[in-house]
Amino acid sequence: GRDYEQAMAAVKDVVVKTLISVESTVASMWQQGSTCISLGEAAQVGPNQTCFEVFGFDVLLDTNLRAWLLEVNTYCSFASSSPLDKRIKSELIADALTVAGIVPYNYDSVAKALRAAHSKRLQGLIPRSVPTRSHTLQTLPQAQLSDLGQAEWQLLVDAHDEHLRCGRLQRIFPTPATASKYSKYFSTPRYANLLLARWYACGGEQVFQEGSSVKLPEFVPKLRSRDNTAK
After folding, report:
1. Do 151 and 168 touch, CB atoms closer than 8 A?
2. Which of 68, 148, 218, 222 is the most buried (most CB within 10 A)?
3. 3-state secondary structure of 214
4. pTM for this model (two decimals)
5. 128, 197 Cβ separation under 8 angstroms
6. Are 100 and 52 in contact (CB under 8 A)?
7. For the segment 35-58, what is each residue's pLDDT rounded down to a tens digit?
8. Residue 87 to residue 78: CA distance in whole angstroms
9. Cα separation of 122 and 227, whole Å?
10. What 3-state DSSP class applies to 200?
């Protein structure tokens, strides 16, 4: 007789607020394990998804379905005590690795690309690429998708690609419902968060679907949705 949606909303609220409280520390550590520039790709507005972590939240629900945080485990136990426990944790591990989008590493190809890029830089043929933004923190919330640069679109493509392979996982921030709700809790606005919030306000995942009124730039690769083949 309890409201499941209400209970899950309370749990998600606790999770988002908890992560925001340590966002600066987590982002700093993430930067240390990430690279901001990929070989042969456009400069991005943030690090590529080269690392990830699974946190275990222990949450208690009271009789009013209010969620109380007990602790957060950074070293989750994936040991299984029952067939159901094994199934749940196996699916979690599979979905986490899939959404992380780990790409097979080819040492020969990377070494060759590095040598070629280094040689071209020595000859002055190509400049060192650095992340560039087409907007500022002040102008981005009012920007149109057509005004975004290649770096911003790369992040949006990555976000959409994550959505396509998320499996049983679910993004809880930023989303159309949470982007503005939790922005006031950040000590420093994040460009990527503002960009995703603006993207959702302009249609979100729908801008990549067939029949969308949004005209995608030529440099945006053809994508596919869960219900459609590549277009």
Report:
1. no
2. 148
3. coil
4. 0.78
5. no
6. yes
7. 544 444 444 455 455 678 899 999
8. 11
9. 47
10. helix
Phi first, then psi: give them for residue 67, nearest 5 degrees: -90, 135
Look-up: residue for tokens 């650095």? Answer: 130
Smallest CA-to-CA distance from 196 within 158, 150, 139 is with: 158
pLDDT digit string, tens, across residues 169-202: 999 999 989 988 998 899 888 899 999 999 999 9
113-123: per-residue pLDDT in tens?
888 878 887 88
* C-beta pairs of 18-26 under 8 Å, 24+ apart in sequence: 18/57, 18/69, 18/72, 19/55, 19/173, 20/182, 20/185, 20/186, 21/185, 23/186, 23/187, 23/190, 24/187, 24/188
- For the chain, the residue count is 231
Q: What is the DSSP string of 118-142?
A: HHHHHTTSSPPP----SS-TTTGGG
Which residues have CB under 8 Å from 149's CB, separation 6+?
132, 133, 134
Q: Taking every pair of C-alpha atoms in the chain, what is the biggest distance, in angstroms?
A: 72
Q: Which residues pair with 72 in a beta bridge?
A: 57
Structural contact between residues 198 and 143, judged by C-beta atoms closer than 8 angstroms: yes
Q: How far apart are CA 87 and CA 224, in angstroms?
A: 29
* pLDDT value of position 173: 93
| 3-class secondary structure, 183 | helix
